[in-house]
Design brief:
Layout: E1 5-10, H1 17-29, E2 32-36, E3 51-53, H2 55-59, H3 64-68, H4 77-86, E4 91-95, E5 99-101, E6 112-118, E7 122-123, E8 156-161, E9 164-170, H5 177-182, E10 194-197, E11 201-202, E12 209-212, H6 231-245, E13 250-259, H7 266-288, H8 299-312, H9 320-334
Parallel strand pairs: 1-2, 1-4, 2-3, 6-10, 7-11, 9-13
Antiparallel strand pairs: 4-12, 5-13, 6-8, 9-12, 10-13
């Protein structure tokens, strides 16, 4: 069966250089390109090669999630995932409207990858395998930035099935506000490496350049009732915890995009990241304490158990569980 790739973005921008590059690349290669809008989106958004869904169009999809998700929130990207799945996507690639694709972004994506495997349990600053600079991914606990890691050359290469794969971003990569306030940019990463994080090796991953295969589609879910700067980071921790039940490691690979970053208020970003600085280690420890199922058919139950834990920790509002239930219900319908 021929693979069907869908690229999903959420944006309130008018068509810009990034959206045009993504639309052009998808159109030339026969891929689906979905842009999910929000309240501030241009009412006359038009871009060849792009399927745009404003708020009205989202609510007309029939998805429960589209009715319940708060407006003005990145979590509306979940609607784009559901649309791609309903339309038969067998590979789902997500990025943002400020990440310009390199030519490598359009290379064939493969679930099975051969790369050096990190067997270390605990936190891993994966950026240190791609750069000699003092740089770390958004969401990594600050006390783990300089923690010891095995040398790359000491890692054993193996072929693994990785249904979740995180690509890095060059130029203005995904780092936290503290890094941007005190450290130099731009930064660029090695192009000749990939690493696989085995069970127990924690590293945050984002929603800026990430590829998903169907067995992991349930784990795409982005929470809405939490800090904006933590929604994809906390998703990544939930996804890692559930993935380990199925022996799915997480692949990190060289950059296939470079970020032309949208304007941000860095002090506001810092404020929104504080819940992560203070809670990410405890959150992951709590997730590790959960008893989950290793049956693929129960992946939705595993997802919900993780969010029940986040609610009990006071990290997300209890209203999140209604959205999780709507997501799982919509996902079942979209997957038929």
């Amino acid at each position: 069966m021929k693979e069907k790739l869908a690229v999903v973005v959420t944006s309130i921008s008018k068509p810009n250089d990034v959206l045009e590059a993504l639309a052009d690349g998808c159109r030339k290669r026969g891929h689906q390109f979905i842009v999910v809008g929000d309240r501030a989106s241009p009412p006359d958004f038009q871009l060849a090669g792009c399927e745009f869904y404003g708020l009205d169009e989202q609510r007309e999809t029939g998805f429960k999630f589209a009715q319940l998700c708060p407006e003005k929130h990145y979590a509306r990207k979940n609607i784009g995932y559901l649309l791609a799945i309903r339309d038969g996507a067998t590979i789902l690639a997500e990025t943002d409207d400020d990440n310009i694709p390199y030519e490598e972004f359009w290379a064939e994506r493969k679930r099975a990858q051969r790369a050096q495997v990190i067997q270390k349990s605990g936190w891993v600053n994966v950026y240190r395998y791609f750069s000699d600079k003092n740089i770390w991914p958004r969401g990594l606990p600050l006390d783990q930035v300089l923690a010891d890691l095995p040398a790359f050359e000491a890692l054993k290469p193996e072929e693994k099935t990785c249904p979740i794969q995180q690509g890095l971003a060059d130029d203005n990569p995904d780092v936290d506000a503290i890094y941007r306030l005190v450290m130099p940019l731009p930064q660029f990463f090695r192009k000749d490496r990939s690493v696989i994080l085995a069970e127990g090796a924690w590293c945050p991953f984002n929603s800026q350049n990430t590829t998903w295969w169907p067995e992991a589609f349930a784990l795409l879910y982005l929470p809405a009732y939490c800090s904006f700067r933590m929604t994809d980071i906390w998703r990544s921790f939930v996804a890692q915890r559930v993935a380990w039940e199925y022996k799915w490691p997480i692949l990190f690979h060289a950059p296939t995009v470079w970020q032309k970053r949208n304007d941000h208020n860095l002090m506001r970003d810092f404020k929104d990241e504080v819940p992560g600085y203070l809670n990410n280690s405890a959150l992951c420890e709590a997730l590790m304490g959960l008893k989950l199922s290793n049956e693929q058919s129960r992946i939705g139950e595993n997802l919900r158990l993780c969010y029940e834990k986040l609610v009990s920790l006071g990290l997300v509002d209890g209203k999140e569980l209604e959205l999780v239930d709507a997501w799982l219900s919509d996902l079942r319908l979209a997957s038929r």
